[in-house]
Please model this.
Amino acid sequence: MTAGSTVELVKLRKAYGGTVAVDGIDLRIAAGSYCCLLGPSGCGKTSTLRMIAGHEDITDGDLLIGDAVVNDDPPAKRGTAMMFQSYALFPHLDCTDNVAFSLKMKGVAKEERRRRAGEMLDLVDMGKYAGRLPSQLSGGQQQRVALARALITRPGVLLLDEPLSALDPFLRVRMREELKRLHRDIGITFIHVTHSQTEAMALADLAVVMNQGRIEQAGPPRELFNQPRTAFVARFIGGHNVIDGGAIGVGGGHCAVRADRIQLGGADLPTEIQVEGTVRSLEYHGASVHLSLDVPGSDEFAVVLDEARYFDAPVGVGDRVRAGWGRRDIHPLVA
Amino acid sequence: MTLTAETSRPSATAAAGRARRVRLLPRVAPYLQAAPLTVTLLLFLLVPILTIVAVSFWDYDSVRIYPDFVLTNYTELLTSPVTWKTYLNTLKYAALTWAITLGIGFTVAYFLAFHVRSTTWQMVLFLVCTIPFWTSNIIRMISWIPFLGRNGLLNSGLISAGIIDQPLEFLLFSDFSVVLAFVHLYALFMVVPIFNSMMRIDRALIEAARDGGASAAQTLWNVILPLTKPGIAIGSIFVVTLVMGDFITVRLMSGGQSASIGLMIANEISLLQYPAAAANAVVLLAVVLIMVVAMLRVVDIRKEL
Model:
């Protein structure tokens, strides 16, 4: 199929009346990469996606797809295709006609477009449901049809608006794998909006954390997880404790420590840095045990212990414990 | 202990009584719940229709009607060329009114549903559409007469503007004025169901069509129109049945120069030819029912109800 296109946002801005949804963001998404726009609701990720798709006017700044500025082009001219959150399948058309819709608009002959729609349905394993109406399909099946409909235009960029949020958790994991496989097979650029950091971690080559219309950090998921730039990123990505540096005697502003790098123990704890606190709650998660402690310098202090290590020296809710970690586990944060 | 034993006895019998009532109630309750509607339909729909059907087989002369079983009412009706001409005329009115109200209804509903962005303005404009309906049908019809008449506002306006020399005769007491009045009376019956259908269309579908490269016209034809069909069908049923059964509009606006089936029935009633009127009504009912069934065969309206 067609190769992916690069997508570049230059000082892209979106305002609705007086409220600024996207506040002049710069981002370059390499051709053929899987980019996840990640953030809490209202952070501007969906507005960004809709501007790239051409369903929202750009207030200011430039949008480049490939080498061309496409600010004022209609969606079909941009070489993008969007998969909508609610799938937006045409309820009066069967799967084949849904998938063939854009070919019909282009005036492709009936036989030809039905054949190509059939091939596309086969690609997403929906060939045997070709004659069904969307209302006769499950959520996961509707999603596959929506995917086929988006891909039949041979776009350089596929835009996915929270594609997995309507599915049950089990199906979500399966569709995640399939999106990844599809991305590998067809090699076009994917831009995927999600509020789930797990999804972004699992899928993205480039994860972009957004907050209040700005990009907090953009990078490969591993970089985001190990070197979160700000306290917001560290909290949003999860698995981190954001601690006031002053309270633990390392000075400066906030710093982050991964919850799974923390050890618990008594007075004989060997680590360089130690804090004392009370166990507020604990949860058994199978492979690991998650504890939350009340410690000075942090509102939320989480400790993730390997199951075996926890049961070597179990503690209960209300116990006083010492938590410690090495100096090299501390990661300073900008804000 | 004794105290509780004594007090528990009456409550036990009360409970038994309650249990009997509870056992009886589930069997009777559905019938009781269905009764009001059943009685209403029996009294005000089924009994009158059966009466009309029965009377349509009676005999009559110029002074009274006789209970009987004769088919003359039907044979006279169906063999008379007047009947066929009147039906043709009524169907012509129905078709013209349907086509024009559909055009107006679809356009107004489309504007309200897709071009007016705020819900407040949608509601305000929608209410504006209903304002003419605050006055009675007759008044709305009659108000056309001074406007369209030979020396009416329109003709004198056009003459004084130098556009025409002679007053336009076709404006009033013609098919034109009949259809105009019908359109004026019934356009809203087309606007409302179509607007309702359009408001149910997920806006993401319009974006999905645009995303697939559809132009505005293609979106209208391939997405909006098919999804609005149930509303169009409901509006069509309203308009067609109302026009088919009308007599007062035709009488007033044609100045007695045109006929419709409704007018024919009204004339028969005024001549006390009840059996002939009843036979005519039965045939009209059958024709209208066939038209409604035909429309429902084309469009499935169930998801709108």
User: Anything to note?
Assistant: Chain A has two domains: 7-232, 240-332.
